[in-house]
Amino acid sequence: MSKLTVETIRDIAGLEKLKTCWDELLATSEADPVFGSYEWTRIWWQSHSADNVDPFLLVFTLNKTVKGIIGLYHTRAQQGPFTVHTIKSLGVPAADYYNFIIADEFKVEIINQFVENQITQGDFDAIALRHIKSSSGNLAELVRISKKNGLIAVIEQTEPCPYIRLEKTFEDYRQKQLNSRSRNMYSRKYKKLLALGEIRFEMVTDKAAIIKVLPEMAALEDKSWKGPRQVGIFASPEKRDFYFKVTEALAEKEQVALHLLWHNARLLCYYFCFLLDDRLYFYNTAFDPEYSRFSPGSLSFLDLIKCCHERRIIIIDMLRGGHDYKSGWAAQCTENINLHLFPPTIKGRILALLFELRLNLRKLKRKFIGKKHEN
């Protein structure tokens, strides 16, 4: 029986040679169709080439057929007295979900080979695989095989990922999820806004229309609360370049949907989403703070849910972050996991202990803050 071979790709030209087989392999794997896509990976790689990162792909083949792709990057940073060399998930943190792109029937063999190769090479102090779904079969195998090979595995529970399952009608959802007080409040705010001029909701999936409105969306985000804090997806020229390019590439595949609220031809709110058959990803939003008294974000989201019903969307995935405004709309959630692996060296054991100590201190802090709020 032929054995899997592994090749390390360290340049964009090598990545581009995988374009023809990437989507086919992605469709058979656990990896996310958006955040694991060839387009997302290539543009992220190009956008971060000037940063202090060293991206690379591990490509596993059998008889010249690609069976697995693992995207990673190297970083080096000072932690106290140590210079720490960490291998991290490619595309993260911009990508809300990360996973290995591997054919399911080769899962165990590829993960075994990945772990053994890292141990043999021994050129890392930590491996940080972030934003893996807790339900991932790859995650379970990674933990099992890593421990079997002597690595120290630390699982970090991170943000919940709320989602909405749309089963019946929009009115059923509205009646069930919103109490009568909220329904009446949104109705009053809509009427007050309407009294000041024309209101228009719009769902945009056409590539040309999406590209045309992106600069207006970036300007609105900068005007919102995100602007002064520099936390938006368009906050810097580098971020803007990445998101403009990735939006254009995914719009070409009809995987981008924008929900817009216009008032007298002025953009008041946008929802930047990714579209996958019967699933919609809610990735980013911003609204005009001058109109906050009308709750434009909530009015828009209600109409977005209505549009999803009309388009037969079943799941609205609100992605990472258990923010209050998300839990108000979503009754269910999944969870992301960060998996941290350390070698069984003296340095690796010290780093693992320090990391677990930081995690425990964070838990105590959250617990203390929670009790303080209860009192």
Low-confidence stretches: 371-375
Counting DSSP H or I runs of 4 or more residues, the number of helices is: 13
Oligomeric state: single chain
Order of helices and strands: EHHHEEEEHEHEHHEHHHEEEHEHEH
As a percent range, the share of helical residues equals 40-55%
* N→C terminal distance: 65 Å
**Gyration radius over CA:** 23 Å
Sheet of most strands = 13 strands, mixed
The total of beta strands comes to 13
Could you say which structural class the secondary elements and strand pairing correspond to? alpha+beta
Proportion of β residues?
25-35%
Mean pLDDT: 91
Coarse morphology: globular
Describe this structure in words.
The structure is a single chain. With 375 residues, the protein is α+β, with helices and mostly antiparallel strands. The chain is 42% helix and 29% strand. The N and C termini lie far apart (65 Å). It has helices spanning 12-16, 19-27, 38-47, 107-121, 137-148, 170-177, 180-194, 207-223, 226-229, 237-252, 296-310, 324-327, 346-374, and strands at 5-9, 54-62, 65-79, 82-89, 101-102, 126-133, 152-165, 199-204, 256-263, 266-276, 279-287, 315-317, 332-342. It contains 13 helices and 13 strands. Strands 1, 2, 3, 4, 5, 6, 7, 8, 9, 10, 11, 12 and 13 form a 13-stranded mixed β-sheet that branches. Helix 3 (38-47) packs antiparallel against helix 10, helix 4 (107-121) packs across helix 5 (137-148) and helix 8 packs antiparallel against helix 10 (237-252). It is globular. Mean pLDDT is 91; it is low at 371-375.
